[in-house]
Specification:
The chain has helices spanning 28-36, 54-62, 126-135, 148-153, 155-164, 172-179, 184-193, 233-248, 253-270, 277-280, 284-298, and strands at 3-6, 10-16, 19-26, 43-49, 66-73, 80-84, 93-98, 118-121, 141-145, 167-171, 198-202, 208-212, 215-219. 38% of the residues lie in helices and 25% in strands. The protein binds adenosine monophosphate.
C-alpha cells in the first residue's frame, strides 16, 4: 500500500563524541523515507534549494523513494540544521537553524500522491500538517510527529492535528511539556484524550511506549554498544513502523506493536553512523537478521 511522508530534507552539520560531519544529508523526511524503504517505496514531499546535490536525489531514487513531490526551488538554499550531542546522547543541542526554502514552503500534495493510504506528518508547522492531511483523498491512516517549539508556539493548530490523526509519536520531554504531567504513563493517556487512537512516546535509549484503548505496550531499544550519531533516530523509528504497516495493511494494536519492533531496529541502524550512511551498509537481509536478533533478545 502507498505511504506518504512530508517533512524536512536538509543539510545537517553534526558533532558527536565520535566525530563531525558537515553538510551531510539529513532531515526528518529523509530518515523516515530511508527507513520505510525496507518495506515499501515511500512517496516523499518536501523542498530543497538549488544547492542540493544530484547525488542525494539519486540516493533517494536508488532506494525506490518517489521524489516527484520533492520541490526544488531554483532560487533558494536548502534547510540547514547544525547540532551537537555531548554527554546525554538522547538530546541534541541545536546550534543553528537556517530555514532557507523551508521558511516559505507551501506544501501542495501532487495529484499522484493524493490516493496515499498511509501518511506520516513529520515534525513541521501544524498548519502544514493539516493542509497535507486534508488534501489526501479517502481515509488514510495518519500518524504525526511534533516538537517542543510547536507545542509552545502553535498549541491550537497542534490541537487540531491531534484531533484528526490516528496516531501521535513524540519524545518523553515533549509529552511532558504538552500535558504538564511528569509521569510518562499519565502523559501518554492525557495525549490520547486529545484525540489520537494511538500514542507512542519515545524515550531514546530506553525504548518506546505505546498507548491504545486496549492497553499499554512497552518496548526496549535495540541493545547497541555504541551510538555514533543519534540524529534521525526518531524519524527512522517512525519510518520502520509505518513502512511495516503500509506493507502489511495493518492498523490494529497488534500491528502497531509489531511495527514498533521494526521501527526500533531501523532507529538502531540510523544511529550507527552519520547521516544516512549506515543504511547503505545494512541491506534488507541484514535488516531482517537484526530484527530476528531483537525479537530473540526480548522473548523469554
Ligand atoms: P530526529 O533526530 O529524528 O528528531 O530528527 C533529526 C532531523 O530533523 C535532522 O536531520 C534535522 O535536519 C531535522 N530538523 C532539525 N530541526 C528541524 C526543524 N526545526 N524543522 C525541520 N526539521 C528539523
Amino acid at each position: 500500500m502507498s505511504l506518504l511522508v512530508v517533512g524536512s530534507v536538509a543539510f545537517d552539520s553534526v558533532e558527536t563524541p565520535f566525530g563531525k560531519a558537515d553538510r551531510v544529508l539529513g532531515g526528518s523526511a529523509t530518515f523516515f523515507a530511508y527507513a520505510a524503504s525496507y518495506f515499501v517505496g515511500p512517496r516523499l514531499m518536501g523542498i530543497v534549494g538549488a544547492d542540493f546535490p544530484e547525488k542525494f536525489l539519486q540516493g533517494f531514487r536508488d532506494r525506490d523513494i518517489d521524489i516527484s513531490g520533492l520541490q526544488v526551488d531554483p532560487e533558494g538554499k536548502t534547510f540547514h540544521w547544525t547540532g551537537r550531542y555531548e554527554g546525554d546522547m538522547n538530546e541534541a543541542q541545536t546550534l543553528g537553524v537556517s530555514l532557507n526554502v523551508l521558511g516559505d514552503y507551501e506544501a501542495s500534495v501532487p495529484d499522484s500522491y493524493k490516493d496515499s493510504e498511509y501518511v506520516f506528518l513529520a515534525n513541521d508547522h501544524p498548519r502544514t500538517q493539516l493542509q497535507v492531511m486534508r488534501s489526501v483523498s479517502g481515509k488514510p491512516f495518519v500518524m504525526a510527529d511534533t516538537r517542543d517549539f510547536w507545542i509552545s508556539e502553535e498549541p491550537d493548530a497542534l490541537g487540531e492535528v491531534m484531533s484528526e490523526v490516528d496516531g501521535m509519536v513524540m519524545n518523553d520531554s515533549e509529552a511532558r511539556l504538552l500535558t504538564g504531567e511528569e509521569s510518562i504513563i499519565r502523559a501518554g493517556k492525557a495525549v490520547m484524550e486529545r484525540g489520537p487512537r494511538y500514542v507512542i512516546i519515545k524515550k531514546g535509549e530506553h525504548g518506546a511506549i505505546l498507548f491504545g484503548n486496549e492497553g499499554i505496550f512497552a518496548l526496549p531499544a535495540y541493545p547497541l554498544e555504541e551510538v555514533h550519531d543519534p540524529t534521525g533516530a526518531g524519524d527512522s523509528f517512525a519510518g520502520g513502523l509505518m513502512g511495516y504497516l503500509a506493507s502489511t495493511g495493518k492498523t490494529s494494536l497488534q500491528g502497531i506493536m509489531r511495527g514498533m519492533t521494526y521501527g526500533t531496529v531501523a532507529a538502531s541502524v540510523a544511529v550507527e553512523g552519520f547521516s544516512v550512511d549506515p543504511f547503505a551498509h545494512c541491506d534488507k537481509d541484514r535488516f531482517h537478521e537484526r530484527h530476528d536478533a531483537f525479537i530473540r533478545a526480548i522473548s523469554f
